[in-house]
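dude i think i finally got it to work??
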Amino acid sequence: MRAEVTIVSRLPESRQPLDLSESADELKATLAARREISPEMEDVLIKNFLQQLERQIDVHIDQRLADRSQSRIEMQKQTTGLISAILGISIPLVVLAGVFGGATAIGAVCALILVVSLVALFRS
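look at this
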């Protein structure tokens, strides 16, 4: 009886997986070299391989952190622009509502501004 295993990735689609093809080739070379060296040198060989793997992982993590930082900066710029636009539109609307409609119109305009702001913020 043969069991099949399905691997389900929990990674977001935008996240690039770590390319380990170079590491696989390096591991094959390390294993081949291990057969040809003395047992005392095995530890050095293994340590070198693990250091290379660690460097690759560090580079990958640094790239992901830089990408995340870049997207966070973009989101902050969009939010700042959205808030500026909402304030730019809401001030004249509140003034006009106060002049022509009184307190009820000001309340309605403020409620409308709140709804539009929340919708816009949650969509982005």
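The helical segments are 21-36, 39-100, 102-123.
im so relieved honestly
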